Amino acid sequence: RMADEELEERIIRVKQDWGRRLFIPGHHYQKDEVIQFADARGDSLKLAQLSATQHDAEAIVFCGVHFMAETADLLTREDQHVFLPDMRAGCSMADMADIRQTERAWEQLTALFGDTILPLTYVNSTAAIKSFVGEHGGATVTSSNAADMVTWAFTQKPRLLFLPDQHLGRNTACDLGIPLEKMAVWDPVQEELVGSGVMDEVQVILWKGHCSVHENFTTVNVDHIRAEYPDMKIIVHPECSREVVEASDISGSTNAIIQSIEQSPPGSAWAIGTEMNLVNRIIQKHPDKHILSLNPKMCPCLTMNRIDLPHLTWALESLAEGHPPNRIKVEEQVAGPARIALNRMLDHA
Ligand code: 13P
Ligand code: SF4
Fold first, then answer.
1. Pathway it belongs to (predicted)?
2. Relative to the CA of 47, which ligand 1 atom is closest?
3. What CATH number corresponds to the domain at position 269?
4. Where is 74: in which H helix or E strand?
5. Which tens digit of pLDDT belongs to each residue from 134-182?
6. Average of per-residue pLDDT values in the chain
7. What is the extent of the structural domain holding 159?
8. Which atom of ligand 1 is nearest the CA belonging to 45?
């Protein structure tokens, strides 16, 4: 790998030449070597909102994963082009709900429940899923507004289908006081609905998807922290399982995690259940606090990590040379309803 300093200089050169015509959003889970060049860093909601306000930007080089770049494309003007430095930077959770599976699920679920279901999708989903949701009256949600959006969904229909993260869906519904017996899980592979209560009384249908990073935090990790550091507070992302969230002290979105730790007094002790790059940055930023990853192995999002210094350099230089790579463009047929789903959320946020 070429010397990092050389790559850094080349990135700085393009950034200087392009000025405000170039915007680089960076998700909090990105590597340090990349996030240092981000014009804004944030969680998925903040980045979606910010992309929509970059009126001078001709090019948006998204340091995040594919669905985030799609969202940026959906919220920006036709003449603003979005690029992803590495096309392999996908999201395993978003890939767990494909549009064909969703259409088949919808057919079977509406045969069972009639016109009583509203679909909601976590922004961590493909544009095609957002489009499906928008067409059927639903909206997107993020981890920071899921409770508000689920509450809104129940003003529209008595049941909801929550895609694609069963954990965020279950944790949010539990926080709103919905009992577990009134939730069921749709298995897109077996094409069956699995629940412990009376099916007619089901209020929340959870798509059987999950995040392969947050599934690595377990109750064994929680027990270990409790035994080893009894004064430590445990804070986890709601993409963790219900058992882990229940065993922890606080659950919150990326932003809520950052804020909780920032607002805690010096000397506070925290174990954090979220992605490794963010945990490491929080540790470095707070030398006066005792902070650990809830899972001592640390948990990277491997697809996020595919965006690295060489890929960012290549993307920016190709752009500057007039042959920009990896444009993310959602086709118009899909984009219209997907935008409706996003805007229903942004109107609430
Ligand atoms: P937020 O940025 O909405 O907290 O989501 C976390 C995540 O998994 C992003 O992919
Ligand atoms: Fe997807 Fe999980 Fe990675 Fe977020 S952390 S991009 S949800 S795999």
1. Cofactor biosynthesis; NAD(+) biosynthesis; quinolinate from iminoaspartate: step 1/1
2. 2
3. 3.40.50.10800
4. helix 66-75
5. 999 999 999 999 999 999 999 999 999 999 999 999 999 999 999 999 9
6. 96
7. 94-211
8. 3
